[in-house]
Predict the structure.
Amino acid sequence: MFKATINAKDFKKIIDATSNLVDEICFEVDENGIKANAMDPSHVALVSVNIPKDTFEEYISDVHDIGVDLEALKKIMGRAKSNEKLTLELDEEKNKLNLILKNDAVRKFSVSLYDVSSTNLKVPDIEYPNEVMIKAGAFVEALKDAELVNDHVSLKISEDGKFIIFSKGDINQSETIYDNNSESILDLKITESSKSTFNLAYLKDITKATSSDDILHIYLGSDMPVKIEYNIGNAKILFLLAPRIET
Amino acid sequence: MFKATINAKDFKKIIDATSNLVDEICFEVDENGIKANAMDPSHVALVSVNIPKDTFEEYISDVHDIGVDLEALKKIMGRAKSNEKLTLELDEEKNKLNLILKNDAVRKFSVSLYDVSSTNLKVPDIEYPNEVMIKAGAFVEALKDAELVNDHVSLKISEDGKFIIFSKGDINQSETIYDNNSESILDLKITESSKSTFNLAYLKDITKATSSDDILHIYLGSDMPVKIEYNIGNAKILFLLAPRIET
Amino acid sequence: MFKATINAKDFKKIIDATSNLVDEICFEVDENGIKANAMDPSHVALVSVNIPKDTFEEYISDVHDIGVDLEALKKIMGRAKSNEKLTLELDEEKNKLNLILKNDAVRKFSVSLYDVSSTNLKVPDIEYPNEVMIKAGAFVEALKDAELVNDHVSLKISEDGKFIIFSKGDINQSETIYDNNSESILDLKITESSKSTFNLAYLKDITKATSSDDILHIYLGSDMPVKIEYNIGNAKILFLLAPRIET
């Protein structure tokens, strides 16, 4: 038994955020809520989703592994209107997940389940020297600056405690500098200077589903994976992206 | 002699609605107004347009067959602004149709006439067991739901008198259900349950030029063509689409 | 030494207007401001830019030739927000031009300089029988009308002093007529009827960066190049386009 009702807008955003990196996912559901961890096909990025029970208006669940094609789910959620309620319902007999949207019409979608077994993937518990709290919109804009000159980008903490998004191409370079006076910065918890370089396409995928006012927690160290976390309603989404090895 | 003035917005919509299905058309004009019937190249859909004289601000006409390339007309009407008046004028000597738009500038377009003879095509007079009056926007949204899973769609009247837009793919399915309580439904005149299946691309073409508040009259029966009618100002446009033979 | 601060919006528009025709350009800077003349690769069109010193908030300059890739500059300026200040700064040691945008973040871009030597290109001093002052939006709309029927367009002054944008295709034709009563016409200084025909794609490139309320000065004669001038803030931009030889 699994039946859960949530506002369609939040679930749409969770699916959007996840589907940019991963094609299929196994939702591990139980009485406490929905969890899912997955790695992208190249094993460079990890995404972890946690939707606690209290995010839902109605929530009844036994323990199940629900493997779904995220592309199909994304298309269906793309059809939801922002004020709609979504009911998710497991049809164990037919091995399908039903998605029911109620508004002026009743709309029922159903998708076949995949045999995606739970991965037992754990999010590694890393300690970071630096944490940046920044509005998603400001970070996304800085990535667009970097994109003009190259396909990778360095996230740096300078000696004097500034957060620098830096990119260097063969002939051009770009640099976006945020400090404590920037309105888009909510907090800079800095203990040391650091620099790591990342594939820009992954960072764009990771931030694609954000709204510009979402608050990103970006955890940084030298040549360490970057950890990026934000909330979607009561749900939490976390990304871990391996650094690019510079030669 | 043929000279007629109409507001550009209405004529643009008539041309848009027609040109989605048909490449060229023969406007049969006379003292009562403009009529045209045409079938799409695959002979699956029929469109019938009736623009009575009183739709026009000014209307003077003898009997003529005016064959035009709808793609050219559509492009020209795409250049009209919604508050403009359009004058249509037959130049019999040069065998051209002139389209004159007056606003800040005077804009004159002229298109060569095609030798598209009047087809004597008649709209068959079919009696239908069921009629659905629904806002065009709601019907178009339901077609988009169906499009997620397959390229054809079933229009059903259920035993309990609901209007169901249903689509089934290899692994997914979608279903949009309207009943008398739906705000988008203006009327359901039901005498029996029915089901017919149609090519989705045709239904999309038929409804592409509609505004979401246009009222569609959809006539349905089992394995019968669907008839869809709506008004554009005082003009009436009607589509007949053959059902898909299910195997 | 070259350092100049200007509002980003104006500089963006100057770069947009220029880059539609030319790939690289040599800015000739001195104590009076920035000048640049360039021809498009096919030598059909000439663009001339003049940004006097008083256009800038801050301006300090020796004499330099600054050769830049306009495509790179266009991309960077595309990242500027309309309320931002832009500082241009020549780094003679590294042979780079720095572009610094200050807002919530500090953003530094730098582009390598090209060895584009000053061309000594002069704008020929031609006397024209006719001058049309027209809102850019109205002229651009007329070009779109013409585009429906052919890839070249005639700019005509009629015997009775109207400004006509005319295009003729194999089967269709279009004509947009402005006179002294048209609101989009600010002035018509006519001394004789005239007609010249131009490549439509060039005219579209020349007017692409305009806002609809910009005032174009269009200078016309029979089988003469057309000269089109407009202002961007205090800066002046001028285009000269050779006529199409009609056979």
Q: What stands out?
A: Chain C has a mean pLDDT of 95. The interface with chain A takes residues 72, 75-76, 79, 104-112 of chain C (CB under 8 Å).
